[in-house]
Amino acid sequence: MKDETPDAAPVQIVDRKLLSDDWATLTKYTLDYRRRDGAQETLIRQVYDRGHGAAILPYDPDRGTVLLVRQFRLPVYLVDGRGWLIEACAGLLDELDPEAAIRNEAVEELGYEMKGISRVFDTYTSPGSVSERLALFVARYSPADRISAGGGAEEEGEDIEVMEPTLDAALAMVAAGQITDAKTIMLLQYLKMNGLPPDKARQGEERA
C-alpha cells in the first residue's frame, strides 16, 4: 500500500504572542498556510502547552482486573457540575523519559510497582488547541506488587481513589457513560482487543 502521508505542512510562523505563562503557557500564533489547492491564507491559532505526559493501564490476567483512579477534575466540573472522573493513572513527564515518569506515577497514585510494562502507542487527545502528546502503556500486575496505599501526592492537592474493576466491568462503564476519559477508553479497548504484549523478562526467565 502506498504511503500517502504528506511531508511537513507548508506553514510559516510569522508571529507569536504569549498570552499566559502560569502553570502552563498559552500562545497566540499567526501563520501563513498553503492549502492543498495551492491557495495561501493567514491563520490565527492559540496553543496551550503544558508539556507531554504518559498514562498506564495495569492488568492482572489471573483475576481479569485493571487498576483505575477516580479524582476531581475542575474542567469536568465546569461542564457537568459533578467533576468526578474515572481515569487510567497518568501524569506529566517532568523532564523524565515516559517509562520512568509513568513508573513513578503508578507508585504515587496506585501504590503499585509496575512490572512487565509495555509502551503500546502515543496519542494527541486534543490536537486542535493542546500540544500535549501522551505515551500510553499497559502493564502486568498482581496483588504482590502493591507497596503502598497510593492516593496521589497530598501536598500537590491530589485526592485519588484507587479502583480495581474487571476489564469487562470497566468496558461496561464506558458503554454506560461512566468512563468518558479518552486515554482510558483507548487503553481499555486496546487491552480488550490485543491483551498484554509478551513479557520479555518472563520469557527470558523461562528460557533460562
From TrEMBL:
Catalytic activity entry: GDP-alpha-D-mannose + H2O = alpha-D-mannose 1-phosphate + GMP + 2 H(+)
Highest rank taxon of the organism: Bacteria
The reply on keyword Magnesium is yes
The residues the record assigns to binding Mg(2+) are A90, E105, E109, E158
Tell me which InterPro entries the record gives: NDP_pyrophosphatase, NUDIX_hydrolase-like_dom_sf, NUDIX_hydrolase_dom
SUPFAM superfamilies from the xrefs? Nudix
All copies of the Nudix hydrolase domain together span 49-187
Q: Give the record's keywords alphabetically.
A: Hydrolase, Magnesium, Metal-binding
Single annotated GO MF: hydrolase activity, acting on acid anhydrides, in phosphorus-containing anhydrides
What the entry lists under CDD domains is as follows: NUDIX_GDPMK
What positions carry the motif Nudix box? Answer: 91-112
Which cofactor does this sequence's record say it needs?
Mg(2+)
Keyword Hydrolase carried by entry: yes
GO BP, sorted A to Z: nucleoside phosphate metabolic process; ribose phosphate metabolic process
Any one cellular-component term (Gene Ontology): cytosol
Indicate the family of this protein: Belongs to the Nudix hydrolase family. NudK subfamily.
Subunit composition?
A: Homodimer.
Q: Which NCBIfam families match?
A: nudix-type nucleoside diphosphatase, YffH/AdpP family (TIGR00052)
Protein name, entry field = GDP-mannose pyrophosphatase
